[in-house]
Amino acid sequence: MSRMSRMTRAIRRRRPSVRDGFAAGAVALAAAAGLTALAGLGGPPAAASAGRAPGCSSSVPYAADTYGYDTFRIPAVVRTDRGTLLAFAEGRRASDSDTGNIDVVLRRSTDGGCTWGPLAVVAAGKGDTRGNPAPVVDPRTGRVVLLTSYNSGAVTEGQIMRGEVTAAQSRRVFVQSSRDDGRSFSVPREITSAVKLPRWRWYATGPGHAVALTHGRHAGRLVVPANHSAAPAPGSSDNGQEPKYYGGHALYSDDHGRSWRIGFVDDTYDGVHNSNESSAAQLPDGRLYLSSRDQHGVAVGNRLDSYSADGGRTLSRPYAVQPTLNDVPVVQASVLQSSGWSGSLLFSGPSVPTARQAMALWRSRDAGLTFSKVLTLSQDRAGYSDLVQVSPGAVGVLYETGVKGTYERVMWRRVAV
C-alpha cells in the first residue's frame, strides 16, 4: 500500500461553495503531510455563533440536531500551550445510541471558550463507531496526543461483552497527534495489540482528558485511564455481560505517544467494585489520583478511587468506594488538580444520586481522601463532563446537559477558583 493511499480522504462539506475550494486545498496539503485535515462542517447560523453569554462565562460548543448530527456526547477538553481550548466530542449521526455511525469531532476556541471555531471531524466513523476521546497535551513537545476507541457500527457493547463479534468488529484502540495547535491531526494509528489483553472484550479509553506527568520520577509520561471487560473463566455459566467483568486499567507512553503499554490492571471481577470509566490527576506529591465510575458493584456507593505511586504502572491499593461522593450517580466524571482554591483537587459530576441531574463541582483539600461540594452549576439534567485549567484562577467544565433531555447540548462553563 502506497503512503498516499493510507492518507485520509478529504472531508466533504454538506453545502459546496467557493469556500469549499480553499478547504479542499487545505485538505490536500494536509494529506500530503500525513495529516487528517480538519475541514469545518457547515451548520445553522445559531450553532455556528456558539451562543456567547454575558461575561463569556458560558457557551454551547455542541447542540443536538446541528451539523448533520443527531446528538453530541462524551465531551473531552484540553488547553494547548498557546492557550487554545480544544473541545472534543462524539458526533452521533443517527441517534443518541452508543453504537452506529459515530465520529470524533472537535471545535477550537482561542478566546477562552466565549466563541468556537467550525466543527471538524478528527476521526471519521464512516458507518462505524469512533469515540471515547482521551486527549492530552505533551508539555515537552507541545503536541496534542489523542487516543480513541473503535468498533464496528453494526455491533453493540452487549454483543462485544458476550464475545459474539470478530476481532475486527470488536473494540480497538487508536492514537493520533497534532503539531499545529489542533488545526490538523495525524491519521489514526492502531495500537490495540500493545494495550489490549487477549482475554479482554470491551475496551474504552477515558473518556475525558488524559494526564501528562510534570514532576516526579516519571515526569514526561503520558497516562490514559481506561476500562475494559474480561471474558468469563472457561466452564463458567456467565456470558461476560455481567457488570462484575468490568475492570479499570491504564495505558502509558514514555516516548511522547509513539509507543504504548499497559499499566495497572484492576482485575478482581468479584462484583463488589466494578471499576469502569475513569479519570486521573497528578497530585502535588507526584502520585496519581484515580476516580472511577462503579458500574453496579454490590458495595454501597457509585464512585471508586485509588492511587498510583509509580506513574500508573501499579495501584497503591485496589479501587474502593469514595464515600464522600455518594451524591454522584452511576456516570462518568472528571478530576483535575487545580492551581486555584489553594491547590485543591477538583471533581465534576451530576449531584443527584439516582438521576443524571444538577452538574456540580467538589473539591478535596487532602489529596482525594475526602471531598466537599462547593458549587452547583445548574439544576438541569446533566451527564458526562470534563475539567480543564484555563488560567491560574479559573477552570472550565465541558458537560452534557439539557432541560427535557440530558443530551440536548454540550455546555461550556468557566468557573473562578
Give the tags.
4 helices, globular, about 425 residues, mainly beta, five-stranded antiparallel β-sheet, Neuraminidase, about 45% strand
Architecture overview:
It catalyses: Hydrolysis of alpha-(2->3)-, alpha-(2->6)-, alpha-(2->8)- glycosidic linkages of terminal sialic acid residues in oligosaccharides, glycoproteins, glycolipids, colominic acid and synthetic substrates. It is an enzyme of class 3 (hydrolase). Belongs to the glycosyl hydrolase 33 family. GO terms for molecular function: exo-alpha-sialidase activity. It comes from Streptomyces aurantiacus JA 4570. By secondary structure, the chain is mainly beta. The chain has one domain: Neuraminidase, CATH 2.120.10. Helix content is 7%, strand content 43%. The chain has four helices and 28 strands. Strands 2-7-6-5-4 form a five-stranded antiparallel β-sheet, with no helix packed on it. Strands 13, 14, 15, 16 and 17 form a five-stranded antiparallel β-sheet that branches. It has a four-stranded antiparallel β-sheet with strand order 3-28-27-26, with no helix packed on it. A hairpin with an 8-residue loop joins β19 and β20. The protein is globular.
